[in-house]
# Entry
Amino acid sequence: MVKDNPFQVAQKQLDIAAEILGLDEATHEILRWPIRELHFLIPVHMDDGSVRIFRGFRVQYNDARGPAKGGIRFHANETIDMVRALAAWMTWKTAMLNLPLGGAKGGVICDPRQLSPSELERVSRGFIRVAARFIGAHKDVPAPDVFTNPQVMAWMVDEYEIITGEHTPAVITGKPVEIGGSLGRADATARGGIFAVREAAHHLGLDLRGKTAALQGYGNVGSFTHKLATEILGMKVIAISDVYGSIYNENGIDPAKLMPYARQQGTVTGFPEAEPTEDPPLEMDVDVIFPAAIEGVITKENAHRIKAKIVAEMANGPTTPEADRILDEKGIYLIPDIFCNAGGVTVSYFEQVQNTYGFYWSEEEVNRRLDDKMVQAFHEMQHTAEARQVHNRLAAYLVAVERVVKAMKVRGWV
Ligand code: NAD
# Structure
């Protein structure tokens, strides 16, 4: 199957919103493209004495509402269009949650599994040496993403502070707590999505206690989604997949057992308290499905087979525009990515606030503030969906795009 170009998907989603909002040509055009892009080379001295040249990107999509914000990915198949799409989605995500931030994303074409820890450190520091002039606490604030983690952020913030000669923890989020990371960041994306599902169920009059869910992906987001769907919603997660295969247990899979197993084994497959299955979890007859792995997995080929009442997009871009239409026709309640997985960037924003004040919150306070933000955004999306008679993704885009447009207009850009 040939996958849609993710940036074309992002542009298509914007085009639909732009038409409904009646945006003029210039306003629409500026929103279809990144406002700035940095393409660069990172020379890295490898352990064997050779020098390898890595290609990197940093895309600032739009910063009308505040400093651009978005993660850095280290990925063997990274492309500029993937980074652009993710930077666009970050712009809509921060606007949807009404955070005073813009959208950005970065990437390095590399396979971190092929690098030694010291090579990984040199790639991370090399990224910052080149990008230091482009980023900043009041310009553009990176964070971890696919195959980068708090340790990588620690090297990056350290390199930035060596270059600038000042402590500026707010330049990068997702740091270890020892150097200014926020409590509650690790499970924030999953927690925000679970709060969104709780609000959606309340709106639909569904009681999810004891009901079933299926999950695709068991990384940072997927594993915490499993834990919190069980703990907060009282659901039974009966099917889980990762890149190696799928497992199934009709009585529900226990996160307290699967999480340490998957951490140790590097996969959910072979878990002794579930059976292997060939059936894709996203197509199972369950109440809620959580795509929490990669983009482009619900398409026009399989959308007809989705049976869940709620689709909670924990991953970025899991549903193509054609599949959106099919899910909408089937009356499935979709919680779109730019809202559903915005818990991570919301707590990243809380981290910036705490760094700026030099005053740190308890985990309970972080979680409570995240809950407030998700509930507020849910009502804004739902209200717009009803008022404009549109499906949820479009409603979320309308809320977000309108906020970015207003910021550009008062600045006099358009
Ligand atoms: P991760 O790398 O920790 O985990 C990805 C998981 O997906 C792994 O279990 C992997 O085996 C699985 N996977 C990969 N391809 C698969 C396939 N074809 N079928 C089934 N499983 C597959 O990544 P993550 O941080 O958990 O992110 C997952 C998704 O959530 C991504 O789309 C990411 O952009 C999005 N997201 C993450 C965050 C965050 O805070 N980490 C925030 C917002 C959005």
